Sequence to fold (861 residues):
Amino acid sequence: MSATALETTGAADAHAHGHHYTTTGLDNRKIAIWAFIGSECMLFVSLISTYLIYKGKSRVGPFPHEVWTDPATGKVYNAILNIPVTSFSTFVLLMSSLAMVLAHNAVVNRHVKRTTFLARLEGNSFFWLVATALLGIVFLMCQAYEFTSFVNEGLGLTTNLFSSSFYVLTGFHGAHVTAGVLWLFTLASIDKKRGLTPAEGLNVDLCALYWHFVDVVWIAIFVLLYLIK
Amino acid sequence: MATTVAPPTYAPAASSPSYAGDKTGVWSWITTTDHKRIGVLYLFTSLFFFIFGGLEAAVIRAQLAAPNQSLVSAELYNQLFTMHGTTMVFLAIMPLSAAFFNFLIPLQIGARDVAFPRLNAFSYWVYLFGGIFITLPIFAGIAPNGGWFGYAPITTMAYNPGLNIDFWVLGLQILGISSLAAGFNFITTIINMRAPGMHLMRMPMFTWMSFVVQFLVVLAFPVITVALVFLQFDRFFGTNFYTLTAGADPLLWQHLFWIFGHPEVYILILPAFGLVSEVLPTFSRKPLFGYAVMVYSGILIGFLGFGVWAHHMFSVGMGPIADTVFSLTTMLIAIPTGVKIFNWMSTMWGGKITFTTSMCFSVGLVAMFTIGGLSGVTHASPPTDLQQTDTYYVVAHFHYVLFGGSIMGIFAGIYHYFPKMFGRLMNETLGKWHFWINMIGMNLTFGPMHLSGLLGMPRRIYTYDANQGWDLFNMMSSIGTAIIIVATLIFIYNFFASLKSGPRAGRDPWGASTLEWSIPSPPPEYNFAELPNVTSRYPLWDVTDGHNLSREIHAGHELRDERVPTAKELGIPMPMSTFKPVMAAIGLVTMLGGMTLKHVNFYAFFAVVGGGATMLVVSLYAWLTSPLEESH
Fold:
C-alpha cells in the first residue's frame, strides 16, 4: 500500500507516548469548549435581546430605573435595581477570574521551586481553586440577596415583563455560575486528593475558559441591564 | 480513472459479514461507543420514525381525500399534522443525516472514531428516549397540537391548557440537547481528527456540508432553547413572555423560532446536498465540478441562512423596510443554492454516467429540489408571498425541498453507503422500482398542492366543502400518497432482504474515490489499521507511482484474504464499552420529561425530576472520572 496515495505515516507512533494524533496538535476538549462557548453566546444573546426588546414595555411596575406609583393603591415603588450591591458583586466576580488565572498558573508551574511565603501561596493551586469557587459563591449570595429584596419590594417572577425577563436572564447566568462552582470544587477535591500535575493543566484550563466566559457575560449584563438607563 | 463499475459479480458469501468487530448481542449495542454502530442505531431508529411520520401523513391524506370527511376529529387532525411535522423534522430527517454523520465523517477524514465517543452514544440515547417521549402521547390522544412551529401565544396556557404542548416543549428541549452534543462532537472531530494530509480543501464534500451543518446546529439551537424556556416558564410558572395582556410582543416567539427555524431548513438539506455530491462524481466518473465553489457556496448558504428568517413572517406586517431587507436576502440565498445545482449538472456533463439507484435518486434531487427552490423564490417577494401564506402552495414548496430534496438525497445515500455499512449490496432492480414509483407518487402528491394552494385552499384545515375547485387536486394528492407508501414498502423489503442475503460488496463496489472505500466493508472497529496519509481529494482515483489503488481493490483481493485483524491483535487502543452514557441519557430524559407531571401531581413532579437529575449527575461524574480506553 505504501506505493499508493494512501501512504501510512508515523502518526500512529503517537500512541506509544500516550497521546492521540490530532490535526491541530491541540487537545480535542480545547476545541469542543470553544464550540460550546460559541453556542452559549447565542443562548445569552437571545436572553439579553429579549430583555432589551421588553425594556419599557411593562404595563405595571416596579420598574428597574424609574419610580412607579400604583394607580390602584397609590403605593409608591422606588426604582428597584440596587447598583451599589451589584457593583460589589461584579467586582467579586472579576476578582474570581484573577484567582482562576492564578489557579491555572499554579498547576502548570507546579515544578517551580518556591521558598518565600508569597511564592508558595502563588504556587498553591488548591488555595486558588477554592478561592475562585468561594468568590463565585459570594457572587451567588449577592444574587440571592438581590432576588429576595426584589420580591420583598413587590417584584415577583410574574409581576411584569421586566421581572420575567430579568429573573430568567440573571437566573440563567446564576445557574451557569453554580455549575462553574461545582466544577471548581471537583477540581479542588482532585487536587487535594492526589495533586493536579502540570500535564493536567488542560483540565484547569477548560474550567478557566468557561469561568471567564461566564464572567464576560456578566459584564455585558451589568452594563446593559444595570448601568444603561 | 479507468475503473470498471458495478454491478459487481462477487459470489454471495456463505456467512454474513459480522458487523464491526467480534462483539455481539443487545448489550454490546447498548454499551457501544463505536461511531459506526451508533450510526447504524441512528439509521434504524430514524427510519422507524420516518415510517411513523409517514403513517401520520397517510391518515391526513385519507381525511382530505374527499370533501367533508370525518375519519378523524378536528382535534386529532391538529395532533396529526403537528406530529407529522415534528416527527419528520426532528425524528426522521435530522437523525437520518446524523446516521451518515456518525458513520461517514470519521471514515471520510481518516479517523478511528469521533472526538468524543461516549458523548456520541449519549447523543443517540437522548435522541431515542426523547423521540419516544414526544411520540407516545398520540396514542393517548394528547399529542402536541400547535403545529411544528408551535406559535405562542396560541401555545400558552390561556389558549392551550392541556398537557399536549408540555410534551412538545420538553420533547424539543431533550432533542435539542442531543443535537447540540452531536454538534460539538462533530465540529471537534472535523477540525481535529483529520488524517495527515487531509487539508480542509481536500475533505470530501459530504464532510464539508456536515461541517457547515454542525455550526448551524450549535448556533441555531440555543435560540429555540431560549424560546422554549420562555414558553415553559409561561406555562409552568406564570411568567409573561408571551402574555399579551402584560404587554408582551406577539411576534417574539415568531422571531426567535424562525431565527432557529430557517437555519434548521439548511440543517435538513445540506447533508443531503453532501451525499449527492459524493454520488454524482462517482457515477459520472469525473471529479466534482468546481469543488472550491461548492465549499464556498455551502458556507455562504450557512451564513445567509441566519439572515432570512423573517421571510416566514411577511404577512404579520413588519413594515416595508424589514420586508424589503428580508426579501433581498432571501433572493440572495438562491444564488449559492443555484450554483450548487449548476455544479452538479456540470459534474455530469460529459461524464461516463452509470444510472445506479443512488445515481437516480441524486439526479432526482437535482430536479425536484430545483422545483422546490423555484417556488421558494416566489415566496421571497412579499406581495406574492401574501397570497401564498398559509395555503397549500407553501405545503407544496417545502415538501419539494424536504421530500424531493432531503429525502431523495438520503435515499441516494442509503443505496450508496449500504454496502459500506453492512458489507452487502442492495438489490438494484427493486431500487429502480422504488425510485420510479417514489418519483411518481411524490409528484402526484405534492404537485397538485401548488394548484389547490393557488386556488386558495388553506393549510391545517381538517376538512373542506365540495366545489371550491380543490376536490380533484386533493384526490390526486391522496392517491399520490398511496403510491409513496407502495414505494416505501418496496424499499423496506429491499433493505431487509439485502441485509440478509444481498451479494457481498467488497471494499469499493462503486469505484468511488474517497477514503472510506479503501477499507473493508463493513469496516473493522478501528477503521484504519494505520492512519492514511492523504495526498489528494480523490485518493482512490489518483494514480501514484504507476498504479491505482482503486483497481487493486477491485481485483477483489480483500475478498480472498477474508479475515480482518482485530484491534487487539494490532495493538490499537479502542474506547471501552460503557453504559454510563445510556444512564446519563435516561437521567436527563427523566428529569426533563418528568416536568410534565407538574400539572398532574406536584409530589410526583418533584420525585421524578429530582430522581432524574440525581441519576444524570451521578452518571456524568462516573463517566467523566473513568478513562475512555483501557490503559496499556
In short: Chain B has a mean pLDDT of 91. Residues 293 and 339 of chain B are 8 Å apart (CA to CA).
